[in-house]
């Protein structure tokens, strides 16, 4: 029997001893699982990793780094710039709509999104020329009306 005055006879320093069900170090890593130790991977095993390779824990066919296979992430900056420029300068609603359509299609259909981008700038250029022409005609008509009046 173990008591504070009589040390355990099994060689451990625990006052209650270590029986068959109690480990000697409660914080030690388990030596095997409930199914025993895993067998070491051999070179002939079809599931063994190549020498020096880091094991991959991704499912087969899963995207690498969150990107679908065959697709690169698309920067949407150009469509955002197009929308902002169209909204701030002369408020061109057609270019804004084309920019939003391109922004939403950029992830799924990049060629169509690029067409919306190109046509957005073409429409913006036409709108800008028409706006400048309208301002010139407005100022010319105001100037002509004010210069023809007599006192």
Low-confidence stretches: none
Into which percent range does the helicity of residues fall?
A: 40-55%
The tally of strands reads: 0
State the helix count.
3
The biggest sheet, with number of strands, parallel, antiparallel or mixed sense and barrel status, is: none
Query: Which sequence of SSEs, written as H and E, runs from N to C?
Result: HHH
Helices and strands: which structural class?
mainly alpha
Question: What coarse outline follows from CA principal-axis ratios?
Answer: elongated
Radius of gyration: 38 Å
Tell me the β content. Answer: under 5%
**Overall mean confidence score, pLDDT:** 75
Distance between the termini: 130 Å
Mind explaining what this structure looks like?
It comes from Brachybacterium huguangmaarense. This is Interferon-induced transmembrane protein. Keywords: Membrane, Transmembrane, Transmembrane helix. This protein is an all-alpha fold and 151 residues long. It has a domain of 71 residues. It has three helices and no strands. Helix 1 runs antiparallel to helix 2, helix 1 packs parallel to helix 3 and helix 2 runs antiparallel to helix 3. The longest helix is centred in the C-terminal third of the chain and has 38 residues. The mean pLDDT is 75.
């Amino acid at each position: 029997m173990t008591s504070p005055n009589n040390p355990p006879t099994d060689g451990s320093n625990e006052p209650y001893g270590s029986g068959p069900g109690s480990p000697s170090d409660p914080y030690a890593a388990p030596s095997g699982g409930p199914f025993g130790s895993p067998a070491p991977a051999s070179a002939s095993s079809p599931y063994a990793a190549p020498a020096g390779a880091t094991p991959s824990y991704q499912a087969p066919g899963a995207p690498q780094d969150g990107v679908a296979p065959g697709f690169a992430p698309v920067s949407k900056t150009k469509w955002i710039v197009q929308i902002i420029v169209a909204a701030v300068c002369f408020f061109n609603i057609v270019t804004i709509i084309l920019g939003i359509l391109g922004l939403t299609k950029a992830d799924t259909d990049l060629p169509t999104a690029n067409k919306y981008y190109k046509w957005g700038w073409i429409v913006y250029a036409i709108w800008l020329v028409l706006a400048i022409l309208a301002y010139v005609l407005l100022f010319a008509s105001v100037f002509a009306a004010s210069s023809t009046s007599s006192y």
